[in-house]
Amino acid sequence: MDAAPVRIAIVSPQRVVVAGLRSILEDCDHPSEIVPLDSDGPDPDVVLYDVLGLLDGDGTDLEIVLGKTASAVLAVSRELRPDLVAQALKRGVDGFFPLGAAEPEICEAILSTQTGWQDGDTGENPVVGSSGSAAYAEQVGSSQGLTSREREILALIAQGYSNIEIAGEIHLGINTIKTHIRGAYRKINANNRSEAVAWAIRHGLPSQFR
Asked: What is the DSSP string of 184-195?
């Protein structure tokens, strides 16, 4: 029996992005169907949300998607604006993939929303809540020597938390937080907060600690 197509809605302020993603999805091994995001119709299985919408608008469209559908929502991140995917993750999207990701990785990310992320799957950004998420989080930064606390703090930084907010979130003193941040920056060769955010998002950290 043929697999049922994954029903996918694409939300982007740029028609070229919609067309590009549609073209990629047509070449995925698993069948898919592009559907409109219609409040009067059935929810799609997956919504692909271009984070550029948070720059061009106030994010109301993302709030509607998250609040009024039961769909899995994947943010489509932009390399030069890691802060936007951090905002999307903080608002509650299920995961993300870079717009410039290889076609098989995009197909795999979308399919994983339906099948669950399994240990050993490839790619840097497993869907939140899937079976491999915790294991993946423990691996991120291991080659750089990051501690679990440093990983957690980097994830919170990438989600837009200030140092004071991080201290309140994980119940540590502000000076201890700063010590962990300095250690993490040194290990990942980040010179400032923006570089740390970019590193964390490239490695899928924000979606692992929420």
From this structure: HHHHHT--SHHH
Domains in the chain, number: 2
| Residues 27 and 80 placed together within one structural domain of the fold | yes
How far apart are alpha carbons 204 and 190 in whole angstroms?
16
**Would residue 19 count as lying in a domain?**
yes
pLDDT tens track for 100-137: 777 888 888 888 887 764 444 444 444 433 323 444 44
Residue among 54, 57, 58, 123 nearest 89 (CA) = 54
For residues 145 and 95, membership in a common domain is answered with no
Task: Tell me: do 145 and 120 sit in the same domain.
Answer: no
Angle at 86 between CA 106 and CA 163, to 5 degrees: 150
Asked if residue 88 and residue 192 are part of one domain, the reply reads no
Write the DSSP symbol of residue 171. Answer: T
Give the whole-angstrom CA distance, residue 41 versus residue 81. 33
Spatial distance between the Cα atoms of 75 and 204, rounded to a whole number of angstroms: 12
pTM (predicted TM-score): 0.61
Q: Which residues of 132-160 are buried (b: 16+ CB within 10 A; e: fewer)?
A: bbeebbeebbeeeebeeebbbbbbbbbbe
Question: Which domain, by its residues, includes 100?
Answer: 6-125
How many C-beta neighbours within 10 Å does residue 31 have?
12
pLDDT tens digits for 29-46? 888 999 988 767 788 999
